[in-house]
Amino acid sequence: MEVKVLAIKEDILGANKERARKNQKRLEEHTILGVNVMSSPGAGKTSLILKTIERFKAKVRMAVIEGDIASRMDADKVHQQGVPVIQINTGGACHLDANMIEQALNHLSLEQVDLILIENVGNLVCPAEFALGVHKKIMLLSVPEGDDKPHKYPLMFTEVDVVLVNKIDVLPYFDFDMSSFIQAMAGLNPAAKVFKISCRTNEGLEAWFFWLQEEINQIRRKKQS
Amino acid sequence: MEVKVLAIKEDILGANKERARKNQKRLEEHTILGVNVMSSPGAGKTSLILKTIERFKAKVRMAVIEGDIASRMDADKVHQQGVPVIQINTGGACHLDANMIEQALNHLSLEQVDLILIENVGNLVCPAEFALGVHKKIMLLSVPEGDDKPHKYPLMFTEVDVVLVNKIDVLPYFDFDMSSFIQAMAGLNPAAKVFKISCRTNEGLEAWFFWLQEEINQIRRKKQS
Asked: Which of A68, A125, A154 sits opposite B121 (nearest CB)?
């Protein structure tokens, strides 16, 4: 319907892909696992990152890149946990891109990092289109958002390696049909892992931690071989 | 940080503004109130529209324009209420724009309509930047998203005439600080009306209906004078 806009977008996407490849190469040179964390606003990205820090920081050297239109609230929370954090303020842009990540990487001591979690801008659309150069793309879908979201934002649900269904502690108060959701995912993206979690009660988080540890191990094995 | 992208955006925004002005003129020629309904995915836009249809359809001639990346689920729900509805599938674009609305208006019998509700793509970023040519911009913020959203998505909260805080029936289960939210709104956009509602229990909806009826009356008075 809006051909002009889409044509411009493709051009930007091509340049972004090239930069993303460079970022990924750079992460691999330093044996770092990069994870792009996406969701709607308020679905629990920061809570998941804070829980993951709590669990991993004693054994894995972490860094966090926080993406927001404005504010540094999330970066301050990560900083309080003693983890290196870079806040990107996109000043209006609705997603992070590879160029922003390149600049953030320039400000981290990469030789001292094993895992970088990147919190994207809260948005189910554009972040799915812009590669950052990370190894894994994950998303949170929170129960209050509803089980119909894969039908409405199919690219995001198709692109990700993991969906964390968050806020399962409030399932009794919402009409969220888990089997409809699981069925929609099986149709769109059967390879994606689905974890049911609550960052408030910690329910289900162990399975996510196990998955993440396996991915970190794999990056290390790949480097050694 | 991403100068190239922003420069292109400004160009698109200029052309969009011009088209939006034409849409608004067209609505006014037909004495139609146009309302742009925005929010994060799953905050309750469709529920609010359905509740508003239920209340207004006997006395106000309504039409609905549904914006989604993909799917026609919401349009089908509106259609079941016997209200004319146009579904726009943006095919990837993260917001509606004035050109899309112009095309949708071409498919409506405008001489038989008093109120058009436009459900934008679920997104707190880009929809705030793209004028559609309507008289009022409203948004829903749902309680599970958290009270910090005005700090993170300031343009959206600054641009709107009304914020409906939805899902207040689940306030006991979430850490949503209403006074923090009200304070943030007072700083960003003191002219905006704030309604606390639940589309599930109907709590607070009367105030919203009253506001909407007043706006419809005003368009009529403006036409007569």
From this structure: A125
Contacts of B154 (CB under 8 A, 6+ apart): A69, A70, B188
Q: Could you tell me if B133 and B101 are in contact, meaning their C-beta atoms sit under 8 angstroms apart?
A: yes
Task: Say if the Cβ atoms of B149 and A42 lie within 8 Å.
Answer: yes
Query: Which tokens sit at A200?
Result: 């408030």
User: What's the complex ipTM?
Assistant: 0.88
Task: Give me the phi and psi of B23, to 5 degrees please.
Answer: -60, -45
Closest CA to B173 of A200, A39, A142: A200
For A100, nearest residue in chain B (alpha carbons): B1
**What dihedral do alpha carbons B203, B204, B210, B213 form, nearest 10°?**
-70
Tell me how crowded residue A224 is: count the other CB atoms within 10 A of its CB: 6
Per-residue pLDDT tens over the stretch B44-66: 999 999 999 999 999 999 999 99
pLDDT for residue B8: 39
DSSP SS3 for B122: coil
Q: Report the share of chain B in percent with pLDDT over 90.
A: 87
CB-facing half-sphere around the CA of B91: CA atoms within 13 A? 8
| Phi, psi at B36, each rounded to 5° | -95, 115
Task: Name the minimum distance, in Å, from the CA of A44 to any CA of chain B.
Answer: 8
Cα separation of A169 and B125, whole Å?
28
Contacts of B171 in chain A (CB under 8 A): none
What is the per-residue burial (b if ≥16 Cβ within 10 Å, else e) of B111-138?
A: eebbbbbbbbbbbbbbbbbbbbbbbbbb
Rounded Cα distance, A66 and A85, in Å: 7
Residue of A73, A90, A143 with shortest CB distance to B151: A73
Give yes or no for a contact between B113 and B63, defined as CB atoms under 8 angstroms apart: yes
